[in-house]
Amino acid sequence: MRMKAYRREAMQRQYAQELEDEEKYFQIDHEVMYKKGDPGTVEGIVRDHSTVGYFVTLPNKREGFLACSQLGCSGGIPLLKRLYKVGDEITVRAEIVGDGGRDRLYTRKDS
């Protein structure tokens, strides 16, 4: 029983270290991202962030969710705060999901 707890703690420390390294060194690959003016894209404003992505207000006043996996990272508030701040403009492709829900947003051309 003790060995399992020791191993679990070691795995948690390793995971925390990996997240910390990602937070320090992660850079967005702008080559695979949509650029302003690309067909089918819109400019959204980052309204808020969570541990797994951003809430973005679109020009049509709808709200969309941009998952951190679209940026190529695993998330976390410190990392996401560093990449985009509230009020930043971001180029996205929106996929409408139902009438009242949030739209799905994409930033990568390969998705």
UniProtKB/TrEMBL annotation:
Q: Which GO terms describe its molecular function?
A: nucleic acid binding
| Family matches, as PROSITE patterns | S1
Gene3D superfamilies in the cross-refs: Nucleic acid-binding proteins
Q: Which residue intervals define the domain S1 motif in the entry?
A: 39-109
What is the protein name for this chain? S1 motif domain-containing protein
